[in-house]
Amino acid sequence: MTRNEYETKRKALINEAEALINEGKLEDANGKMDAVTKLDQDFEAAAKASANLRALAQPPVPLAGVGEGAAFNPGNQVGTEDMHDSIEYRKAFMNYVLNGTAIPAKFVNAAATTKTTDVGSVISPTVLNRIVEKMETTGMILPLVTKTAFAAGVTVPTSSVKPEATWVAEGGTSDAQKKTTGQIDIKGYKLRCAISMTLETSVMSLQVFETVFVNSVSEAMVKAQEKSFINGSGSGQPKGILLETVASGQNIDLAASADPTYQTLVDAEAALPLAYENGAVWNMTKKTFMKFIGMVDTNKQPIARVSYGIDGKPERTLLGRRVVLNDYMTSLGATITEDTVVAFLFDWSDYMFNTNYNMVVKSYEDNDTEDQVTKAVMICDGKAIDSNSLVTVTKKKA
């Protein structure tokens, strides 16, 4: 049965069923609809059988690299798998890190070349993905920043990073983001993490090695990145938010002899522009937060609260605003020798972290300890896109 014959017969059955329904002969109409269903099933089965027959009629296509009479070899198949993601390469990478064994030449390609001398091998995509995932879950600030992957050396207008929408009249149009409020020069700073693995670990399995490697690299990378997000100098590393100029009226001074009060938080909240109300979070050390946790408002209600989410992690708030803790700032109660920011409000989505998450490693032996040291290298940069949400609390020096 051809498709035209099928469609003609199907249409006739439907018309007959419709006429029977109009005449009130529902039982006969149901019989016609059952006939339509059987016709559909028969035509589909015939089409599948015809397609299978055509496929069988085609001669088999030889695999690439396999000539007539050649033995079948899975290695001759053409696949899309990244060679750096194979078990063979991952084992070679483990031997390189643990024992300094050179990576086989067949795994060294142009994609791994670079001008830096700190490169000995690329990290397997499987391991790299685990590192990135671990970094996202380990970090407190890293998951909050805006992540981009621009090429190093380019100048990016801020309006292309955070585009704005505009209202237009019916049939009207708008500018294609031609106006820019500033620009960001993307640098390619090198973040290096040295990991020492002793000879005793050389007997570990591939799974254990990759887990240890992922945990070591991700923890070290996250700490370095988040520290630079706050205090980075901007020279050879990302520029920290605390090096940006605070907008007029958005700094709250705390006298050297004074402790923070309820009014300190109220003044900081008042200094935060309404446009940045939703995304801004408090940033401080745990010791500083504990200074606030015992404070109460005029109704004797605690202003700091700690609740627990579904995953059991503590969720800290001050006056209802989320608190993100870090170890990269000076705590209240520490010796202050110069004016120091001890807490600040900021919307971290206004901070751009630029990297393609490509990592390479170089391995060498420490002659003093006989440990095999691996340096993981990552190219990245970071800068504030918009610092208008920054409100600082500064402890004055004595």
In short:
The chain is α+β, with helices and mostly antiparallel strands and 398 residues long. It has helices at 3-22, 26-57, 87-99, 125-138, 158-161, 206-231, 262-271, 286-293, and strands spanning 121-122, 146-148, 155-157, 183-185, 189-197, 251-254, 281-284, 304-308, 314-318, 321-325, 340-346, 351-365, 372-384, 391-395. Strand 8 and strand 9 form a beta hairpin.
How would you sum up this structure, described in words?
This protein has 398 residues and is of the alpha+beta class. The chain is built from 8 helices and 14 strands. A 7-stranded mixed beta sheet has the order 6-14-11-7-10-9-8, covered by helices on one side. Strands 1, 2, 5, 12 and 13 form a 5-stranded mixed beta sheet that branches. Strands 3-4 form a two-stranded antiparallel sheet. The longest helix is centred in the first third of the chain and has 32 residues. The N and C termini lie far apart (97 Å).
What's the helix and strand layout?
Blueprint: H1 3-22, H2 26-57, H3 87-99, E1 121-122, H4 125-138, E2 146-148, E3 155-157, H5 158-161, E4 183-185, E5 189-197, H6 206-231, E6 251-254, H7 262-271, E7 281-284, H8 286-293, E8 304-308, E9 314-318, E10 321-325, E11 340-346, E12 351-365, E13 372-384, E14 391-395
Parallel strand pairs: 2-12, 6-14, 7-10
Antiparallel strand pairs: 1-12, 3-4, 5-13, 7-11, 8-9, 9-10, 11-14, 12-13
Helix pairs in contact: 1-2, 4-6
